[in-house]
Structure formats: C-alpha cells, structure tokens
Design brief:
The protein has about 475 residues and is mainly alpha-helical. The protein has helices spanning about 5-20, 25-45, 80-100, 110-125, 130-150, 155-185, 190-200, 205-225, 230-240, 240-265, 275-295, 300-320, 320-355, 370-385, 390-405, 405-435, 450-465, 470-480; strands at about 50-55, 60, 65-70, 75. The strands form two sheets. The chain has a two-stranded antiparallel sheet. It starts with 6 loop residues before the first helix and ends with a helix.
Length: about 475
C-alpha cells in the first residue's frame, strides 16, 4: 500500500487534465469529478505509512561521514500527512458536491482548477524536496488565481490580478532563498539540508544562510496571507465563490504549516527565529480581528477573521516546543473545518438573498433557521467557545504560551478570541435577529440542501474533535516528536 503514496498526487492531477479535456461533456464532468472526489480521501485513509523514492533511487550512505543522502525526490507519508490530506480531500468532496448540485451546467475548466489545486497541496505536504515544494507551490498559486478569476463576484479579476502580481515577487524570493540553501549544502532535500545545518557544516551566522532564512520567511508570509499580505489574501477569500473560498482557505493553511515545518527543521538554530515567527503571528491576530470589526460586508468580515486565525497557528509554531507545535497544528486542523463551515453558510445567504451588506439585512432567521443555527455554532467554534474544537486548540495555545514564559501572549490570545466572539455576535444580530428592513425583499429561493449537508458534516467534526481532541492530538504529538 506504500505504492499508493504518489497516487494521492497523480489521481487529482490526472482528473484535472481529463476534466479540462472533456470540458463540453456536462454529464461526464459531473460523474468523473464526483467519483474522484470520493476516491482522493479514501486513498489517504487506506495508504500505508512510509516513504516513496521516485525513480527507485534509494538513499545513499556516505562511508566517510556515515551520512544519509537522498538523490531522488522523496515523498514521506505519516499520520500527520494522512490527517490533513484526508481532511482536505473530504472538504474538496463537499465543495464539489455543493458546486455540482447548484449548477445545471458545470465548467470543466473550473473543476480543473479545483483538482489541480488539490493535487498541488497534496504534493506540498508530502514532499521532502524543497524545490519540488516550490514547483507545486507555484502551481497552487495559479490554481487559486484561476478559481477567483472564474467566480461571478464583482471585481474578482482585479483581486486575482493583484495576487498574481504579488506572486511574481513572493515566489521568486522564495526560490532565491532555496537556491542559497542549495549553494550552502549541495542538496534540495529538506532532511539533508537540516542534517547539514545541525551538524555544523553550515554556520547559523553565515550571511548567506541568514539571507536564505529572510527570503523564505518572506515567501512564507506571502503564502500564508500574514502581514503585509493580509489584505490581498482576505480579498481572495471574499472574491471567490463561497464554496471555493473554503477550499482556498484550506490550501492557505496547509501551505502555511508545511513551509513553517520546513523552516523549523532548518532555521530553528538561528537566534531569535522563534521571536520573528511569533511577531508575525501576533500582528496577524491583531490586524485580522481589528479589520473584521470595521467591515459591513460579511464576506470581508469572515475573510479577515480567517486571516487573524492564522496568527494562532503561527503562535504555536513560533513558540517551538513540542506541546506548542502540537497545539498550532491542531489549531490549523480546526481552522480548516470551522472556516469552511462559515464560508459555505454565509455563501448560502449571499446566493439566495443577493445582499452582503449587514446594515441592509435583518430578520433572516425566519427564512433560513437551519443556516442561522449552523452559522451560530460555526462562529462559536471560531471564537473558541467550549465544548467545540476551537476551544480545545486555543486552550492548548494559552497553556503553551504560559509554559514558555510568555503570559502576555496567553492574554493576547484570550483577548483576540473575545473580540472574535464580539465580531460574530454583531454580524449574527444584524443579519438574523434585528427586524427586517422594509425595503429588503427576501426571494423565495430553496436553500441548497448540499450546502446544508456540508455544514452539518463540518459541524459534526467540530463537536467530535471538541469532545475527544485526543483522537488527533495524540497522533499529531507523535509526529511532532520526530521533529525535535
């Protein structure tokens, strides 16, 4: 079953090509995309843990230094990769289901972009080759730009173009940092680079090594949507179709943690590296919730909250202890689920009512009670209210900050969670509880059953992981133990 590892990338990639090839065959597009969307998470669940060496080139041992070298592109599949690939695969299935059931005529090119992005993000989390990471990262950026450009939301082309222009800066800087690491270590294999750094072959105070760190940090901020890229990233979420925004957010989170784990393995030896990561994350937390407070468009509001929640992930990763990194990765898992629930739920309102300005809405709970209740629970999850999974991961982050001797970070996390709760209460009241404006006409459109089903599935995950967090935290902790 180890041979299934490359199939997790090959299957969605082949599906994407076929969907683009038969873009005029509507029934074939629906059947193929639906079947492959089921197969992808199934492969991740059934595949055995192990390592796949492309071309059959097994690692070689240097007889002088007794060091292991990896001449081929290597994919590593552990319980950590299994959890996140299965989750993003499940989310992709729900997104495809919502799309197929809400449109009689589907776009082969649009589905091509979804599965292309899915293949790219899977490769990003599997690869132990930093150049291979970069290649699929660029493919993922293009897929996200295409998904936004293909949406029907006003000013989507402008947002997609801005993100692509920034990508022409962030991507090359990331590649330049990788080239510096190649020059220093003679390898692009992440494990080989980490061994070279920690064995003393590369000096942690080398100017080239420090420049590589700075360039890759810049690429990480761009990939994650952390400051100074928070505005354009939130714009990407708000200008994509709501179901697609849920998927783009999962792509962002996984890109963030994948590159962060690479940096932890390679650059943790640099003094003050952890402080830089924590600093970026704290600023993202503050800016995200602050800008969400000023929004009247609920799409922009949830987009900025999603950016702010990334700061909680970075906080755990930046603290750098075994428990803190585990908490950060658990928060990443929870954010993917809770944010997807909110994007899909708010998308129901935007699609059926045709209005996204909360000052012009009101009384919608009478028309959409199921959506309102699920959105209320989704907001509580994001704000870290017990007994949901968001509470468990944020509690772990507070404990990690205290154990590392930073009570001010614990206080910041609590304040941001309270502010997130207040933002959501305001939006929920304005949309659902206040009296309906006289000039608001609520169309008698049926609510998408597939979207409600997707929200219920995601909420079920929030409840299960909130009541039984050990289901995943024990496995994530086992993976993190191998990093230290």
């Amino acid at each position: 079953m180890i041979d299934f590892i490359p199939l997790m990338v090959i299957v969605p990639l082949a599906c994407a090509l076929l969907l683009n090839l038969f873009s005029n065959q509507n029934k074939l597009l629906k059947c193929l995309s639906f079947i492959v969307a089921i197969i992808i998470p199934a492969i991740a669940i059934l595949c055995s843990y192990g390592t796949h060496y492309f071309g059959g080139y097994a690692p070689m041992v240097d007889n002088v230094t007794n060091t292991l070298y990896h001449p081929a592109i290597t994919y590593t599949f552990t319980v950590f990769q299994q959890i996140f690939i299965a989750l993003v695969g499940l989310l992709a299935f729900l997104v495809v289901l919502v799309y197929l059931t809400n449109y009689k005529k589907v776009s082969g090119f649009y589905l091509f972009l979804i599965f292309l992005g899915l293949a790219a993000i899977t490769a990003i989390i599997l690869t132990d080759d930093i150049f291979n990471f970069y290649v699929f990262f660029e493919i993922l950026v293009l897929a996200q730009v295409g998904i936004v450009a293909a949406s029907s939301i006003e000013n989507n082309y402008e947002t997609a173009l801005k993100y692509m222009i920034l990508g022409s800066i962030g991507g090359p800087m990331l590649l330049l940092g990788i080239s510096f690491l190649l020059a220093l270590t003679g390898s692009v294999n992440i494990s080989d680079i980490a061994i070279a750094v920690h064995s003393g072959v590369v000096s942690p105070t080398s100017s080239i090594f420090l420049m590589a760190c700075a360039l890759i940090l810049f690429g990480w901020a761009y990939a994650s949507g952390l400051p100074p890229f928070h505005t354009i990233k939130s714009g990407m979420y708000s200008k994509a179709e709501p179901h697609a925004a849920a998927l783009i957010q999962s792509f962002t989170v996984i890109s963030m943690i994948a590159l962060a784990l690479i940096m932890i393995r390679i650059f943790m030896i640099i003094p003050y590296f952890e402080i830089i990561i924590v600093g970026f994350s704290a600023i993202a937390m503050i800016l995200g919730v602050s800008m969400a407070l000023t929004q009247d468009d609920f799409r922009r509001m949830i987009a900025f909250l999603a950016v702010g929640e990334l700061g909680f992930i970075g906080l755990g990763l930046g603290l750098g202890t075994h428990f803190a990194v585990t908490a950060g990765l658990f928060q990443a898992l929870n954010e993917i689920v809770s944010t997807a629930l909110l994007f899909i739920g708010f998308g129901i309102i935007a699609r059926t009512v045709g209005e996204t300005n909360i000052s012009k809405l009101g009384g919608l709970i009478e028309y959409y009670p199921k959506t309102a209740i699920l959105l209320l629970f989704g907001g509580l999850v994001m704000a870290g209210v017990p007994p949901f999974n968001g509470f468990q991961s944020k509690l772990m982050l507070v404990q990690a900050s205290l154990s590392c001797g930073f009570p001010e970070l614990s206080l910041l996390a609590i304040i941001i969670s309270i502010a997130t709760f207040l933002v959501f209460v305001r939006v929920f009241y304005m949309m659902f509880l206040k009296p309906k404006p006289k000039d608001l006409v609520v169309p008698k459109k049926p609510v998408s059953r597939s979207a409600i089903f997707a929200m219920i599935v995601l909420f079920a995950f929030c409840v299960v992981l909130g009541l039984f967090p050990g289901i995943v935290t024990s496995k994530i902790a086992l993976f993190v133990g191998g990093l230290f």
